[in-house]
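EI: anyone free to look at a 173-residue chain?
SC: sure, send it
EI:
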Amino acid sequence: MARPEKSAVIAELEAAFKASNAVLLTEYRGLSVEQLKTLRRSLAGTAKYSVAKNTLARIAAKNAGVEGLDENLTGPTALVFVEGEAVDAAKALRDFAKENDKLVVKGGTMDGAILTAEDVKKLAELESRDVLLAKAAGAIKASIAKAAYLFNAPALKAVRTIDALREKQEKAA
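SC: here you go
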């Protein structure tokens, strides 16, 4: 590859590193072109699957301020630049790897933290962001309803006591 072409690839990868919420690394050795197309389609809208030379990826990561990927950038490595939710991309990789055992997740990085292959598996097991937000909102709503009931209970007790006294007086009169 000529020097200007390498510079262009590095600039493109650097921009992808900077624009991504997370970067996951996979080994694609043994996968056919058709299988890679299927994988790219499953990641569409969530992430971009790119095959690049390890040396160029190392340089681009360093330029983008991403550290810790060097040990995983060996052998045939593809980068998954996550633009959407990292959980969705990890689930897509997990599901594809179930059907195609030649895809190996090596690790990655998210929010400045280095992810191991096991971390990516755990990430794939999480529920989606929308589900987690809905559960949190439900828990908050339940807490607020409980607090409202507790604050309202003394007033209700007072009203019931007054009603009972009034009924007692009416019966006595």
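EI: DSSP finds six helices and five strands in the chain.
SC: 👍
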